[in-house]
Design a protein that fits this description.
43% of the residues lie in helices and 15% in strands. With 317 residues, it is of the alpha/beta class. Helix 8 packs across helix 14.
């Protein structure tokens, strides 16, 4: 049995990424009910909102689910108390040092997965005692690593450096990509952007429609002076490009970013003023479907590709 599935008690080695403004209890529970690890993205939630999502998720599934917890979140202590109170079985930490909280989670019986973008931080996360590591290439949407290492390079490099289960992320939206990542040494994959365009996603319909329109080259990694983020082309992305052209300093960039940009774009559907975070794989997304259908097709394509690979290997010398 796949060791990721065994440790986290799921049927298939897939994590639905915990994306701000896009992955609430509806998406998380729908994914967990299909045998993958559904995730609530808590980074956009006030504590009382997170508690509502935890309560509804537990009512909607009896399968394991996780909470993605950005460690730089201002009210991280409140979120941790809620995670413990509701006995969430798995936490996926990101954007911070896992050493600060991992022991506490594990003492509470909570398994910990940490997200990194480099071999160096993967090794530090393993030393901190995490149960598994997500290594995310720069193809991914949302906040990203400064190294700009692609998933193709990152996964085999991290695999050599750690012994705990490794989850590949960034640019994965198909069963064939999933198989490729497992061949590179990953134990599982994390998929985000494809689930933005699901019926259960809490993303605004206008944002979902914009994702379906995305073409090759319509996303870019920017704002590295603040926190690197991959944005879909639009009015705000254009403003950022113009700021760089006039050689704006970090202070001006921070002022331009302001507050609530992501909520405006992804949750409220303000495509002019909002920040639209999505991965490069968006150019290959052309429909909005229930999460169950997305998962079914991913696994079917994975199985077909795996069978083709096995058949080809039989005739290799």
């Amino acid at each position: 049995m796949n060791r990721f599935c065994q440790i986290f008690d799921v049927k298939s080695p897939i994590i639905q990424a915990g994306m701000i403004w896009c992955s609430g209890w509806k998406l998380a529970s729908a994914c967990s009910n299909e045998g993958i690890l559904g995730v609530i993205g808590s980074g956009s939630m006030y504590p009382e909102v997170l508690e509502e999502h935890l309560t509804k998720c537990k009512r909607s599934t009896d399968k394991p689910f996780a909470v993605n917890l950005p460690l730089i979140y201002p009210q991280v202590d409140d979120h941790i108390e809620l995670i413990e109170k509701h006995k969430v079985p798995i936490v996926i930490t990101s954007a911070g040092n896992p050493a600060k909280w991992t022991a506490r989670f594990k003492d509470s019986g909570i398994k910990v997965i940490h997200v990194v973008s480099s071999r160096k931080f993967a090794m530090k996360a393993e030393l901190a005692g995490v149960d598994a590591i997500v290594a995310e290439g720069f193809e991914a949407g949302g906040h990203n690593g400064r190294e700009e290492t692609t998933t193709l390079c990152l996964i085999p490099d991290v695999r050599k450096a750690i012994s705990v289960p490794l989850i590949a992320a960034g640019g994965i939206g198909s069963g064939r990509a999933m198989l490729a990542c497992l061949n590179l040494g990953a134990d599982a994959v994390q998929i985000g952007s494809r689930f933005v365009a699901s019926e259960e996603s809490s993303a605004h319909q206008a944002f979902k429609a914009k994702v379906l329109e995305a073409k090759e080259g319509d996303t870019s990694l920017t704002l590295k002076e603040l926190t690197p983020v991959r944005l879909l082309d639009g009015s705000f992305a254009k403003d950022v490009r113009e700021a760089y052209q006039r050689k704006a300093d970090p202070e001006e960039l921070a002022k331009l970013l302001g507050r609530g940009r992501a909520k405006k774009g992804m949750f409220e559907g303000n495509l002019q003023e909002g920040e639209l975070e999505i991965g490069q794989i968006s150019s290959m997304i052309d429909d909005i479907r229930p999460a169950a259908e997305i998962i079914h097709d991913l696994l079917l394509e994975f199985q077909v590709a795996r069978d083709e690979q096995f058949t080809a290997e039989r005739y290799m010398f």
